[in-house]
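Blinded run. Sample ID left blank on purpose so nobody reads anything into the name before looking at the predicted structure. Input follows.
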Amino acid sequence: ACAILIVSAPRSGQGAERLTVAEVRAKLEAATPATPADFSHQDLSELDLDGVDFKAANLAGAKMFAARLERANLAGANLDGANLDRARLIGADLRRARASVRLLSPA
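Blinded prediction complete.
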């Protein structure tokens, strides 16, 4: 049996603030355990975030279309409503990540 994990996302996604890799890294460096980085409803689409440690960041509603997240640490992150369509998650740590999900079975 095989299942595909899809994170539910609102279809609109317009108006999201587009970030650069440097801005993402700066926010993460400034984050603390008491105040994790907040990327909610921001646009991280197509960014190369390979190996980035998101330190339980808030990524709720973030647009991460085709983002490269290989070996990224998303453990404990809030991914509710994030758009991860075509994101590359090979080797990413998703333990304890929170997300609204649907499981699809192959036809």
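Unblinding after everyone has recorded impressions. The two ends are 11 Å apart (CA to CA).
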